[in-house]
Design a protein that fits this description.
The structure is a homodimer of 234-residue chains.
Chain A (H helix, E strand, L loop, with lengths): L1 E5 L6 H11 L6 E6 L3 E4 L6 E4 L1 E2 L8 E4 L5 H5 L3 H11 L4 E5 L2 H7 L7 E2 L15 E2 L4 E4 L2 E4 L4 H14 L1 H10 L18 H18 L6 H8 L6
Parallel strand pairs in A: 1-2, 1-6, 2-5, 6-7, 7-11, 8-9
Antiparallel strand pairs in A: 3-4, 10-11
Helix pairs in contact in A: 1-5, 5-6
Chain lengths: 234, 234
């Protein structure tokens, strides 16, 4: 089973690594980390680097395609027509096409979410509408073979659900036990609708700071500014 | 703030990446991925490779030290006296010394958990006793400046708690919101004491299979066999 995880400069690592840690336990899983150019890929924090062993020209099909998100990198990716064509090509071959966090904006830009229910990170979920998607605030949303998940950590929940669809609930439960996924967050602040105002303001400030840190000359500043204003947030 | 994450052949990526995704948002965080030899580090699945930018000879201190776990690699690491000396040296300089999953066995082998409460992945937590540690089944356990966490995903909970100790609860809550950590696992199977027998048996089979896959000639087979028997499990 070919599981293709697309990685790119500025991705948020946990978006990819959460689902990878579950999906890699599927029988006959063959996970391929794929980028525009193979080699070292720098994540959003700049501290962590992952290795892409394939470039997109080498990959023509997948059973599962996963597009992770990023703080600002997804804006550049969602304007890359060459990438969007590749995503469309791979999607035609998949059993499942999935995203985590702002990865859904890239799927939407590829035209795959038109008139479909989808979700994303709370900071960017409002952007889905401009691509004709129906934005929701579920932890993860399935529409046919497409599953989109909320921000960063939501990929773990989504991939457990996906695993259960592929190999059944019993095996998925074993994968959950394997990674001892018995979450006990010390605070109740992970949901934008339940977090207090101070946490939301601080989280927006962090988003802005991280976005600025992550800016490169390759990013289109005006688009980034529209993101970091987060005027549609909450 | 220097946050040193030790990575090694066969590590379980989420053990490191979960805490990294939280701790990297700390003000002035400077995260260093450190290995015995700098370069590409192959994880337990063999599908994912991370980059270590430093080798242990280049790192003499840390504010936070994090030791992630692995399926079998931790056995090799816990017998490496050169590594254990380095861990002891770094620990003398830290404000916090932490582990996720079987990373606590490496801390224990370094002598840092003697007579201390600690935890680990359910599959190996029984090994803590042989190093004089007091094993517990809490999600994460603090004893002084040492915090150990249960398996794989527990590092996210542990690092949120750690962040709150460093910058206070308000900021930690914002980090939780940043990664939208509002866990909604589709099943209730992440805790060995709540999972059903079939899930436990399957999870043990997966552990055995992954352990065999991860064996290299560098691993000491008799020690691995004692692990995969899991005779003390549950």
């Amino acid at each position: 089973m070919d599981i293709v995880i697309y990685i790119y400069t500025g991705l948020t690592a946990l978006d990819a690594i959460g689902p990878y840690e579950i999906l890699s336990r599927l029988p006959n899983a063959n996970i391929k980390f794929v980028a525009k150019e193979k080699g070292v890929i720098v994540t959003d924090t700049h501290f962590l680097k992952l290795v892409a062993e394939y470039d997109i020209t080498e990959i023509n099909k997948a059973d599962i395609l996963l597009i992770p998100g990023s703080v600002v990198g997804f804006i550049r990716e969602s304007k890359d027509t060459n990438l969007l064509s590749w995503i469309n090509k791979i999607d035609k071959t998949t059993t499942w096409t999935t995203s985590v966090c702002s990865g859904s904006i890239i799927l939407a830009a590829a035209g795959l979410l038109k008139d479909k229910k989808a979700t994303s990170h709370w900071g960017v979920v409002h952007l889905l509408k401009s691509y004709g998607a129906i934005s929701t605030s579920e932890r993860y949303v399935q529409e046919g073979k497409i599953i989109t998940a909320q921000g960063v950590s939501a990929g773990i929940d989504m991939s457990l659900y996906l695993a259960s669809q592929i190999v059944g609930e019993e095996k998925a439960k074993a994968y959950q036990l394997f990674i001892e996924y018995d979450p006990k967050p010390p605070f109740n602040s992970g949901n934008i609708n339940e977090a207090n105002t101070a946490s939301i303001e601080l989280a927006k400030k962090i988003l802005t700071k991280e976005a600025k840190k992550d800016l490169t000359i390759l990013d289109i500043v005006k688009n980034v500014q529209s993101l970091i204003k987060l005027k549609h947030g909450r």
